[in-house]
Amino acid sequence: MANKVLIIDDDDDLVMTMRLPLEAHGYQVFRAANRQEGLQKVKEVKPDIILLDVMMDSMTAGFEVSRTIRSPDPTSEYAAYREIPIVMITAIHATASLRFAPDKAQLPIDAFVEKPIEPEALLSIVRDHIGKHRP
């Protein structure tokens, strides 16, 4: 069975540039265009990895998605999904002067990657993170 990749991003062109090489290498790709749809798809799809944008329906939507999925609350409706690797792929550093990096409390993700991302780099990141459990 193919590994499932969930792309949560509102940029149709970027999603297509990520979808094509992933599908060509046997991944099953799903897409959500905003925070709410992304959280719903996590439960529906049960992806092996999430590729997440920051700025979608709000400037911090991606941060909110990652914190919701990784909530330490044992009663969270996303508790079963908190080990799914999350790779944030964004251009926020090009549009904001703030700098972000993975942080267990504030930005609970596994990796932070700048857009645009070359297909081979994307495939490498996905391969490296699928199957890994968070520490």
User: Can you tell me the CATH superfamily of one domain?
Assistant: Response regulator
> How are strands sequenced across the largest beta sheet?
2-1-3-4-5
Average of the residue pLDDT scores: 87
For the largest beta-sheet, the strand count, sense and barrel status come to: 5 strands, parallel
Run of helices and strands? EHEHEHEHEH
Which structural class should the secondary elements be placed in?
alpha/beta
| Gross CATH architecture of one domain | 3-Layer(aba) Sandwich
- Measure the end-to-end span: 26 Å
CATH first level of one domain: Alpha Beta
CATH topology name of one domain? Rossmann fold
Number of helices: 5
Q: Which spans of ≥5 residues are poorly predicted at pLDDT below 50?
A: none
Strand content: 15-25%
Task: Give the overall silhouette.
Answer: globular
Helical residue percent?
25-40%
Write down how many β-strands occur, each being a DSSP E stretch of 2 or more residues. Answer: 5
Radius of gyration: 14 Å
How would you characterize this protein structure?
The chain is of the alpha/beta class and 135 residues long. The chain contains five helices and five strands. It has a domain at 26-114: Response regulator (Rossmann fold). 36% of the residues lie in helices and 17% in strands. The protein has a five-stranded parallel β-sheet, sandwiched between helices. The model has no long low-confidence stretch (mean pLDDT 87).
